[in-house]
Structures are given as structure tokens and as C-alpha cells.
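Ticket #4471: structure export looks truncated?
Reporter: QA, pipeline team
Priority: medium

Steps to reproduce: submit the single chain below to the structure queue and open the exported record.
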Amino acid sequence: MRDIPTNAVKAVIRNKNDEILFVRRHKKRDGVTNWDLPGGLVEPGEDKTVALNREVSEELGINADIGGHIGTWSFFRPLDGKTVEVENFNATLSSDRLVLSDEHDEAKWFPEKDLSSLALKDLSILDALSHSP
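Actual output as written to the record:
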């Protein structure tokens, strides 16, 4: 059995209106419909920016230009008893045309002022965003 990586990367992607892109996991996958930043797990030995570009491409169907590191947060996964460390990076998209993977059922831009009322995957996202320019 393959070990599950405990490192993840997320992209803080803003549009020209300073809204942040979130994706919603398809309910059929795990019964949860919380919003999350695009990104995912880093494979063993994989560079974090390469992993983030791979994840954005898989989830949104487009490439991203990965910018600076803006912070790290972590959360505990009770299912396997592991703590996942999530590194957040600013990113810009190469196109506005998104093609969602089967993993998500929606992508949406939200103003930062509305984020506290969203059903977020993890509230630590708000802390990470507070460090984003």
C-alpha cells in the first residue's frame, strides 16, 4: 500500500476584480460540498511549484503561473491520523476558460469579504489569505 503524502499545495488565484477562485468538491466523491482553494497533494520527491501547477492543470484544465509563497497552514486528518501541511502560493491563470475535472462540480470567484460566510474545507484558509497581497 502506498503512503499518503502529508504535504499539499494550494493556489490563491485572484481575478481583475480582486476576487479569489475557489473550487467545490463533487458531493458524489465524499459526501462533502465544502469550498477549497485549487491544489492538492505533493507526490514524494516532487517540487512544490511543479505539484501546484500539475494540480491546477488537473482540476481546472489550464496552466498557472506560480508566484510567491504566501504562508503555510496545517490540518489534522482524523481518518488516517496524519497532519497535512499546506503551502499556499499566489498564482495567475493562463486563461479564463476553466474546464473542471470530475473531482469538482463548481468553480467560483468570491470577494474576500464574503469568505467568512462560506462553507470552507478548513477555516485556516482565511488565515492563509490574510497573508496574500
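Status: closed, not a bug. The export was complete when the record was re-opened. Leaving a note from the reviewer for reference: Strands lie at 7-13, 19-25, 35-36, 39-41, 64-77, 82-93, 104-111.
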